[in-house]
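anyone seen this seq b4? input:
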Amino acid sequence: FEAQAKKTAAGTLKEKGCTAYEFHADAEHPNRYILVEKWDNAKALEAHFKEQHTLDLLKVAEEVAAGPIKFDLGTPLGK
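predicted toks r here
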């Protein structure tokens, strides 16, 4: 997972509209990761989910998790 996450991060940071994309390992739970990402707009984020590196990451994540992955989308404070 980590190898694919690094590839996906490198590709994603080159995408139009992406201003941040960082994976963080949870220090207390070794199999939990936090992804912090920032996009200029929803259209850019929607396009991101069609990129091959994103599809590859989702496939690996589902294999590792042995099932669907849950995403929690948040809104930055102050917006």
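The longest strand covers residues 18-25. The mean pLDDT is 88. kinda curious what u guys think
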